[in-house]
Automatic annotation (TrEMBL):
PANTHER family: BETA-GLUCOSIDASE 47 (PTHR10353:SF27), GLYCOSYL HYDROLASE (PTHR10353). This is Uncharacterized protein. It holds the Pfam family Glyco_hydro_1. GO terms for molecular function: beta-glucosidase activity. Keywords: Glycosidase, Hydrolase, Signal. One of its GO terms (biological process) is carbohydrate metabolic process. The keyword Hydrolase applies. InterPro entries: GH, GH_1_N_CS, Glyco_hydro_1. It comes from the Eukaryota. Belongs to the glycosyl hydrolase 1 family. Coiled coil: none annotated.
Length: 508
């Protein structure tokens, strides 16, 4: 049901979709644990999130992803909705434990292979490019239990084995691969604050029983960086020439703005970015950890051997960033800070805050970490362009959240004007960065549907489609209709410029 058309909203500085190149990917994003459900179906093994969500007290509403939005079974309907929006790409992740129920050891699960084969074929049949992550926070429980997940260098071998299987079975049709989704978030939340599995930390407020927040995140990151490089190596030598795809990594990327013009705060903002995003991208692209990390962490930062450095060289076809939000950064080296996010040594002594002179950096949302600051998109993209030589970039996620509350009826929820404004303003900012030369290739809205939002369970909604969790019925939100119009305009413009018939493009 459509409650309003886009004509009823007036958008400031409306972006024209014509500003994007004709082969630009406009998509939506998802991940296997948050979407698939079918957690024990067809031979799938348990993964770390299956086990974690079943522990009491971990998830806000006591929920889990056992069923999630059941995309495993309902993908034909979801494809229909994607087709209605006119997206030309869909980002999803493969469930590692569905392919290898016991991790590396044990056999490949044929039913898992069949499922993704069918799904990929169905996407392509609709003209939708699969944009696939090999893992999105999930790891087979066997590996978490035996290896301590990413803490062990053994996991590198397991992941290489798994990645090779995916390239072999799906790579003839998948042209965009990402190795890891937000490895920075995995290292930080799994091994520093311990709020995500495997829940390791040593910080007093962290509520973990084992771990070392000062050291383990860096060991984990080191393993992940080397694993990424090794997997890209496998793709390059065995598959890329024949299959012709591209491979990258996806980072969580917040724009971090100095809270003042002082050189102390400017340096702090650089440090904060180095300890957050550049932590992974610098080694992969520049062959070394950021200098600020080396200086502050000293021997707690692992080092790369000669062999590692050789392996790291040129191991990226594109960067993917998940960019939702921005924060201010205040220096904590030259003037002392209260403890808080960013202030520790492991984060570069750079306090993160959303408030300056009692004013938020952007409009707050139902998520305490998302502030609507479209300028951050332009700044983030420009920063990456300059630091990393304009390597092709995808915005692999951006999104706006609402929270369930008594006033939040389905009618309110599907009339999501705020989400439309967010998307419009962020696209506008992206177009500005592209006009100034940034090589951006695609844009994926988080998310296709409302879904299982990790620690927040089903209390928070990010979807362009509403999901009624009692029936799993999907209903289009205003944002989905807005996106459809936006994409249709884009196609119409680009095709008319090419001289191709316009009507055909407008009838979607
Ligand atoms: C992403 N932060 O996570 C994930 O890739 C998605 O699975 C998730 O549903 C989505 O964002 C919305 O939360 C994030 O610290 C993790 O700013 C951390 C941050 C942002 C996003």
């Amino acid at each position: 049901i459509l409650v309003a058309t886009c004509d009823t909203i007036s958008l400031k500085g409306s972006t024209e979709s014509s500003q994007f190149p004709s082969n630009f990917l406009f998509g939506t994003a998802s991940s296997s644990y948050q979407f698939e459900g079918a957690f024990l179906s067809d031979g799938k093994g348990l993964n770390n999130w299956d086990v974690f969500t079943h522990m009491p007290g971990k998830i806000m509403d006591g929920s889990n992803g056992d069923i999630a939005v059941d995309q495993y079974h309902r993908y034909p309907e979801d494809l229909y909705l994607m087709d209605l929006m006119g997206v030309n790409s869909y980002r999803f992740s493969i469930s590692w434990a569905r392919i290898l129920p016991e991790g590396r050891f044990g056999k490949v699960n044929r039913a898992g292979i069949d499922h993704y084969n069918n799904f990929i074929n169905a996407l392509l049949h609709k003209g939708i490019q699969p944009f696939v992550s090999l893992t999105h926070y999930d790891i087979p429980q066997e590996l978490e239990g035996k290896n301590g997940a990413w803490l062990s260098s053994k996991t590198q071998e397991d992941f290489k084995y798994y990645a090779d299987i995916c390239f072999r079975f799906f790579g003839d049709r998948v042209k965009y691969w990402s190795t890891l989704n937000e490895p920075n978030v995995v290292a930080i939340r799994g091994y520093r604050s311990g709020i995500y599995p495997p829940c390791r930390c040593s910080w007093p407020f962290g509520n973990c029983s084992s771990g070392d927040s000062e050291k383990e995140p860096f060991v984990v990151a080191h393993n992940m960086i080397l694993t990424h490089a090794a997997v890209v190596g496998i793709y390059r030598t065995k598959y890329q020439k024949k299959q012709g795809g591209r491979i990258g990594i996806i980072m969580n990327a917040m724009w971090l703005e100095p809270i003042s013009d002082s050189w102390e705060d400017k340096l702090a903002a650089e440090r904060a970015q180095s300890f957050y995003m550049n932590w992974f991208l610098d080694p992969i692209i520049r062959g070394k950890y950021p200098i600020e990390m080396q200086e502050i962490l000293q021997s707690d930062l692992p080092t790369f051997s000669k062999h590692d450095l050789e392996m790291l060289k040129n191991k990226l076809d594109f960067i993917g960033i998940n960019h939702y939000t921005s924060f201010y950064i205040k220096d904590c080296i030259f003037s002392p800070c209260e403890p808080g996010a960013g202030a520790s040594r492991t984060e570069g002594f750079a306090l993160r805050t959303a408030i300056k002179n009692n004013v938020f950096i952007g409009e707050p949302t139902a998520c305490d970490w998302i502030f609507v600051y479209p300028q951050g998109m332009e700044k983030m993209v420009t920063y990456i362009k300059e630091r990393y030589n304009n390597i092709p970039l995808f915005i692999t996620e951006y999104g706006f959240c609402d929270k369930e509350n008594p006033l939040f009826t389905m009618e309110n929820s599907i009339h999501d004007i705020k989400r439309v404004e967010y998307m419009n303003s962020y696209l506008d900012a992206l177009a500005t960065a592209m006009r100034k030369g940034a090589d951006v290739r695609g844009y994926f809205a988080w998310s296709m549907l409302d879904n299982f939002e990790w620690l927040d369970g089903y209390t928070i909604r990010f979807g362009l489609h509403y999901v009624d969790y009692a029936t799993l019925k999907r209903t289009r939100k205003l944002s989905a209709t807005w996106y459809k119009d936006f994409i249709a305009n884009h196609k119409a413009h680009n095709f008319s410029a090419d001289g191709a018939p316009q009507e055909q493009q407008l009838t979607r």
